[in-house]
Amino acid sequence: MIVTDKFVFVHLPRTGGTFVSNVIRKFFPSAHEIGHHLPRELLPREYSNLPFLGTARNPWEFYVSLYHYAWARDAASVLVSWMSENGRLDFTGSIRNVLNLGVNDERLRKRGRRVFLPS
Question: Helices marked H in the chain — which ranges?
Fold first, then answer.
């Protein structure tokens, strides 16, 4: 999340936010990062009066990007293990699990912890 004197940029994962963050830092001298991929709820109160800016991505491209990013970065991560059922599922099965993220709370639990998407 980047705060300027004019707006707050909420950096959503896999949506081109790194590019936008770099442009904001270049053209807004007041820009400073207060956290990476933070949800709006964690915005400090003193910035709550500012408008929000974010980016979106074609949902199909988002899921392809998420899948390849997560596998390449750490195939043993909790996210990849969860979405691919420990490597047993292909792309289609893995993305089906991600699309059904909120459907089955039991799938979100692993060793008594809730599993969340990476930041």
Answer: 17-27, 59-73, 78-84, 91-99
0.70 exceeded by pTM: no
Average pLDDT across each block of 10 residues of the chain; the chain has 119 residues. List them in order: 96 89 96 88 93 89 87 79 86 90 69 43
- Dist. CA 57–CA 39, nearest whole Å: 17
- Which residue from 29, 48, 30, 49 is spatially nearest to 40, judged by alpha carbons? 48
- For residues 48 and 28, what is the distance between their CA atoms, to the nearest angstrom? 19
For the chain, give every domain's residue range: 2-54, 59-112
Helix (H, G, I), strand (E, B) or coil at 113: strand
